[in-house]
Amino acid sequence: MIIVGLLSSMPAMIIFWIIKSSLKSKFSNSKEKIILSLYSFLSVWITFYIVDNGFITRWSEQTIWVLIYSLTIVLGVWIFELNKKEITE
Q: Which residues cross the membrane (predicted)?
């Protein structure tokens, strides 16, 4: 299960980085964080859907962990500051 999580997280992180870099100057911080939060939450639940072969039919311990994981990622998007400045030397 850890290997499946690792393999499914890598493309999601790359897509997250691509979305973040493409939104760098187009939106305000709050709109950018909302978009990144929606993507983060959906990517976790889509992965859960693919691995579990369907939507949630009943609450289980696995469902609670997926909910905690997705909410942790969304909180991380809001806690950490987005760097909008380009680094120049």
A: 6-23, 35-51, 63-80
